[in-house]
């Protein structure tokens, strides 16, 4: 058995791992997680027989985690550990069928007794058969191998029908922010639709479960008595796929294998995965393994000279149209595959990055956020995903090229930044974060327009502010130095004298003398 300890305090996790004699309680593996997201990945990826969790955690409480567990892995017993004797916490924990509720600090002997009772009670109350099916497919998800006959719970089922649901949840809003159509309740809704529409979904061994965390993919298994059931089940599952897409408002493909004996399902599922990787034409379809034809391996690359010309002219709308036409050509000639789409993405990115570099823009900074990484990782999933990716990178490029096209505009942006941040530790490298420009390029541009270097402008601004403070306040010179960005008093004094001809103290004295004070 496996246990999972969840607490945002690493010392608590370490203490519970060492303080409980887990092997004596029948646990072979004790996993640790420090957030709800890590815990979900552990439960999905490894399988957990007992959950020991804190309640009050940032980015998702223990109650949120247990609610997710009940939706996805309902038979896992949970014991809560908390610092708070809060009635509402306790009441919600009971409603979620929490097995026990402990206040910290924990008595390890008492906790061990409760864990032992939870394990015994769970073993006697759960359907051992159902648990074996889930564990069987979790093991397959990790190893991609069907376990030996001695560990197979499908010995009484001569045939299985397997498939994958593949979701396409990502979309961009008009402001280029990324959103997902799926949420924490989506898997529960899929399971409910499965059980309500597919007659055999409630039989022993039937299941639908998340395949790999973060893959936006579900594994579907149906036991059947004979291969002749393929046609009838295909009709039912076609309706299931359409209903899932409609109710979740999310494009989804269902990849359905052929009815095969259990021992052959490893090969069948591997074939389905290969089909998913190369079925890139559209979203919202039922795809049958028996009908799918792999795309041709040979393909014509895009017209590199035309794409480069459009980039040189900053004609991103026409560039998007040409890319759309090329991808359509791949689809029409049956050469659209992971290989051709991946090659196309590399060609476009290399050409775009080089173009931006010639304009002094740092592509690795423009395309560095979570939105870009998510869109980039999913670009090869389908034509629609690739076109969303292209729309994003072209829009970002066009916007930054437009903003950098006027040297006066760029200089004003830099000046405004210095006016707001002169008291901070800024230097030439700050230009990279201000404009996503190469610092050398931005420095030359600034000096060409203003006649002085960027750092000279920063110094002028700081000295100007220091003069103002010397004239309008009685603050010590060391304090003024710090307020305008210089922690070293001696350095500030030397720099002030170099710029004005006198020290800060003498400058203040001269002001008082001039006013008769």
Tally of alpha and pi helices = 22
> What's the number of structural domains?
4
Structural class of the helix and strand makeup?
A: alpha/beta
Strand content: 5-15%
CATH-derived topology of the largest domain:
Alpha-Beta Plaits
Low-confidence stretches: none
Percent of residues in helices: 40-55%
**Strand order in space, largest sheet:** 2-1-3-4-5
The CATH class of the largest domain is: Alpha Beta
Please give the largest β-sheet.
Answer: 5 strands, parallel
The coarse overall form would be: flat
Describe the structure.
The chain is of the alpha/beta class. The N and C termini lie far apart (85 Å). Helix 4 links the parallel strand 4 and strand 5 (100-103). The protein is flat. The model has no long low-confidence stretch (mean pLDDT 86). It has 22 helices and 12 strands. The chain folds into 4 domains: 2-126, Response regulator (Rossmann fold, 3-Layer(aba) Sandwich), CATH 3.40.50.2300; 155-288, Reverse transcriptase/Diguanylate cyclase domain (Alpha-Beta Plaits, 2-Layer Sandwich), CATH 3.30.70.270; 304-402; 407-514, Homeodomain-like (Arc Repressor Mutant, subunit A, Orthogonal Bundle), CATH 1.10.10. Helix 7 packs antiparallel against helix 8. A 5-stranded parallel sheet has the order 2-1-3-4-5, sandwiched between helices. It has a 5-stranded mixed sheet with strand order 9-10-6-11-12, sandwiched between helices.
